[in-house]
């Protein structure tokens, strides 16, 4: 979650001296900080379905540059990570320009992720850690949505996926255009029945 959201929800309660030192902040500025350890990377099997269904996670990944005061401002840079676990030895991973849970179209690039722990990664990651390869820029990962999916078409330069999450639903294509990938919704999720009829 974002800085202000975390603070307002009472999740950031203590000061973090490491951050104060790394950002060159004065003691008087150390009012919004917390004692937030590096997030654990859980085994992705914890999130896997018992029936072996494919899984996805959509993560919001944002960074802070040295010298900028946390909490009081927005992130320096950010992207969204879409990861699919389809039973391979690695995760299919796209780094996206926009949040596809709220938009129908974006672009990004592809990179394989060999560590399946990334499927459940969230929280703070210090510089030099697995989810943050930078030298001096703290990063944060927030899970936007996660759930089951079906890889309907699986070609090297083209994928078709049905997502069955809470926010990310429906059929999407991922189509490679040179070094970039177009990610676009092609079909909305089916309407679900409710007590009062259909929704």
Explain this structure.
This protein is mostly beta strands and 199 residues long. The chain has one domain. It is 7% helix and 39% strand. 24% of the residues are buried.
Evaluate the radius of gyration: 19 Å
Residue fraction in strands? 35-45%
Structural class: mainly beta
Spatial order of the strands forming the largest sheet? 1-2-3-4-9-8-7-6
Q: What separation lies between the terminal Cα atoms?
A: 29 Å
Compressed to H and E, one letter per element, the order equals: HHEEEEEEEEEEE
Tell me the domain tally: 1
Helix content: under 10%
Q: Number of helical runs?
A: 2
Overall pLDDT confidence:
74
Highlighted features:
199 residues, disordered N terminus, 2 helices, disordered C terminus, 39% strand, 11 strands, single chain, mainly beta, globular, eight-stranded antiparallel β-barrel, two-stranded antiparallel sheet
Question: How would the blueprint of this fold be written?
Answer:
Elements: H1 3-8, H2 17-23, E1 54-63, E2 77-85, E3 92-96, E4 105-110, E5 123-125, E6 139-155, E7 158-164, E8 169-177, E9 180-187, E10 193-194, E11 197-198
Antiparallel strand pairs: 1-2, 1-6, 2-3, 3-4, 4-9, 5-6, 6-7, 7-8, 8-9, 10-11
Summarize the structure.
With 199 residues, the chain is mainly beta.
